[in-house]
Amino acid sequence: MRKVAVYPGTFDPITFGHIDVIKKALKLFDKVVIAASDGANKNYLFNPVERIEIIKRALFSDLKLDKKKIEVISFTSLTTDLCKKYKSNIILRGLRAVSDFEYEFQLAGMNRKLNNNIETIFLMSDVENQIISSRFVKEIVRLGGDIKKFTTKSTINSLKEKYE
Predict the structure, then answer these.
(1) Is the pLDDT of residue 97 over 80?
(2) CA dist., res. 156 & res. 106, Å (int)
(3) What pLDDT is attached to residue 129?
(4) Residue 147 pLDDT level (bands cut at 50, 70, 90)
(5) What span, in angstroms and rounded, lies between the C-alpha atoms of 38 and 134?
(6) How far apart are CA 135 and CA 112, in angstroms?
(7) Which of 72, 98, 113, 116 has the highest Cβ tally under 10 A?
């Protein structure tokens, strides 16, 4: 049986921290579903269609990752419902720092209460990418800073287009 993991997030935009988690997940699972949330309670820079395209360009054009092992989607449902749809019992979450843990721990507990067959697996990005957040990347580019250490070339171009 194929092992599928669902990696939900806003990915607004995707960063090298996210990409580290994806690369590690590809070593553990047969398929990884990158699920860009379209929740109404967030103020996104990129709309869902733009985020999906940015993620695909970063993963498949810039990095040449295996399209057969990755599916990129947007979603508005509960993550547990998404897992059911993709026949997955694994939710992937990335951890950067201890400060992430409390929120992620609560989220994992809620998802477990919603469906006790689902496990949340936490993966850490490499040390050099643990400080990266989408929020900081957007702020740096908005202020004219260099973000090439934080995300892919095509993502940088998308960000610059937004702020021009």
Answers:
(1) no
(2) 32
(3) 87
(4) very high
(5) 15
(6) 28
(7) 72
Q: Phi and psi for 126 in degrees, rounded to 5?
A: -60, 155
Check residue 143 and give its pLDDT. Answer: 94
How far is Cα 126 from Cα 134, in angstroms, rounded to an integer? 16
DSSP-assigned states of every residue in 70-130: EEEEEE-S-HHHHHHHTT--EEEEEE-SHHHHHHHHHHHHHHHHH-TT-EEEEEEPPGGGT
Burial class (CB in 10 A: 0-12, 13-18, 19+), 73: middle
Mind listing the domains of the chain with CATH numbers? 4-163 (3.40.50.620)
How far apart, in whole angstroms, are the C-alpha atoms of residue 32 and residue 158? 24
> What residues act catalytically?
18, 42, 96, 134
* Mean residue pLDDT across the chain: 94
pLDDT value at position 156? 97
Instruction: Give 99's pLDDT tier (boundaries 50, 70, 90).
Output: confident
- Residue identified by tokens 């579903």 is 33
